[in-house]
Please model this.
Amino acid sequence: MLCVSCEARHRGVCGALTPEQLTTLAAQSIKHKATEGDELVGDAVQIHRYSNLLSGVVKLSKTLSDGRQQIVGLQFAPDFVGRPFSKESTLTAQAATDVDLCSFSRGAVERMMAQQPDLEHRLLRQTLKELDQARDWMVTLGRKTASEKMASFLLMIATNLDPAADATQRSATFDLPLLRGDIADFLGLTIETVSRQLTRLRTTGIIRIENNRHVIVDDLSRLRTCAGD
Amino acid sequence: MLCVSCEARHRGVCGALTPEQLTTLAAQSIKHKATEGDELVGDAVQIHRYSNLLSGVVKLSKTLSDGRQQIVGLQFAPDFVGRPFSKESTLTAQAATDVDLCSFSRGAVERMMAQQPDLEHRLLRQTLKELDQARDWMVTLGRKTASEKMASFLLMIATNLDPAADATQRSATFDLPLLRGDIADFLGLTIETVSRQLTRLRTTGIIRIENNRHVIVDDLSRLRTCAGD
DNA sequence: CGTGCCCTTGACCGAAATCAAGGTGGGTGG
DNA sequence: CCACCCACCTTGATTTCGGTCAAGGGCACG
Model:
């Protein structure tokens, strides 16, 4: 319940709240963990809870009737998980890695929003951020080649998971939060193509991979060259 | 200045405003027209104005450094055009058809937002709607075949341009708001593939086309079958 | 009557999908 | 402890869908 030390308090939506409101909300919040693969929001799981993502990665995906799948977004701490005002979300949110969450009931969040317009303001900002990201990714899906897609993906992960990589940092290191199949579903490719592109980047010396998960990028600018934009 | 009869007053963001606020805003608003191809927001055009789209279609697009283009969204009346709180929008908004707009200065909108939280609430809802649409389209871009993409596009246009088509309506009629090249940029295809898919749908009897622009769908359910979801 | 833009159609090509074998590593049960 | 299994990944051969290249048609406009 120590909101003061919580990341969502500083960079997330909870920053909108006054100390009293935080106390109220904290009393109604539940910190809990979910493990890789757990469904957080979906057709099955009704949307009665909203959460702040405190650690780990959440994947948002959609599935066509014949089983084809597309991951439409990734969320990182301290993102807000859950679709406000949703009729039905045709979207599934799953833990991509083990995650820590801080959850609230729908009612609690909506009461807070009513008395604290700044909360809605922060939600608007997060939603705009996600919209920008979604549109950027549409360019990747619609107009980039397989190798450009792969490079774009690695850069995206690097900037989110290696705290130092977003600056003018030269190198980056991180664990891939997704399996090959999920990467394929995110990039609109097959698992084989993902695998081939990774080995291509590896044999070119642009990345190194250890244990199939751990990636080292020695020169981010070379990777940026591959990404196409 | 007759906000009372304006569509944005009823279904758009202006519905958030009190009569007095409407009067204030109306005094600062400018109704104007733009013709096909005009750039409304972009790297060139600074973002000092926000607009309500009163009629016509606006296309939002992004361009890679080598010229590849992707249309990342279409807007229809009474959508709100312009990115609030934007640093720089890497996005270009262009009139896809001739359009009517009702524009406000950035300052006016921000003042309104400060005193009228409901305005921000409506913006949040529109943004969430656009986010949902963007994510739906990501599935189309990443996982659908050329013919499924074409069918999805026609359905999308039909539901937005033929007022009757969204219900359980059986047929639809509309003018394509985009040239073949723009359709290609929206679907992540080439102009030739778009052309071929259209003739395929035409020869199958699923659609009829007059004057290269006017489309008649006699049986929407057949088209839906083609769309894949 | 030319000229240019937009669209269509055909022939060919190539990037990524599909199909098909392995390889690797971690976990389990004998 | 070892053998087996299973999930995940890689690699190769072949196919296919959509891209590229090329030609020509229709129509508006000067």
Residues 145-146, 189-190, 192-193, 196, 212 of chain B lie near DNA strand D (CB under 10 Å from a C1'). Residues 117-143 of chain B form the longest helix (27 residues). The domain at 3-139 of chain B is CATH 2.60.120.10 (Jelly Rolls).
